[in-house]
Design goal:
- The protein is mainly alpha-helical and about 100 residues long.
- The protein is built from five helices and four strands, in the order αβααβαββα.
- The strands form two sheets. Strands 1-2 form a two-stranded parallel ribbon. Strands 3-4 form a two-stranded antiparallel ribbon.
- Strand 3 and strand 4 form a beta hairpin.
- The longest helix is centred in the N-terminal third of the chain and has 11 residues.
- The radius of gyration is 12 Å and the shape is globular.
- The structure holds a DNA duplex (13 and 13 nucleotides).
Length: about 100
DNA sequence: GTTGTGACACATT
DNA sequence: AAATGTGCCACAA
């Protein structure tokens, strides 16, 4: 499995998200250097297969909503993982203003 | 090289 | 508020 530089950068950022914090696709895009890369970031995470290596459950969209097409246990599993991190999840949404890294 | 798809975001309807 | 359209990018076929 070959990993492109782009995906590597995405994984690197997501991997560094501390416990109890979340990151939005937009924020990641900006960190990568271009806010228009949000879509590509989603693709990169979807390609990811290492749930334990890449805490992609800490990544939500701009409104704090969880990803519906979560690749692992589903949205419910993602919610549980977030709550396990001490993040309050309401209606599959998190308070990004409060938890954003 | 072109087309279609998608874990996004923003503006408009 | 919800649906729709537009912009953007990376990837697979």
């Amino acid at each position: 499995m070959e990993i492109t530089q782009f995906q590597n950068k995405v994984f690197c950022i997501v991997k560094e998200i501390p416990r109890g914090r979340v990151l939005t696709y937009k924020k990641i895009s900006i960190l990568l250097g271009n806010k228009n890369w949000a879509r590509a970031v989603g693709n990169a995470l979807h390609n990811n297969k290492d749930q334990f290596l890449i805490p992609c459950y800490r990544v939500v969209n701009a409104k704090g909503k969880l990803s519906i097409s979560y690749a692992f246990g589903g949205i419910d599993e993602q919610k549980r993982l977030l709550e396990n991190d001490g993040i309050k999840v309401v209606n599959y949404r998190v308070d990004i203003e409060k938890y954003l890294m």
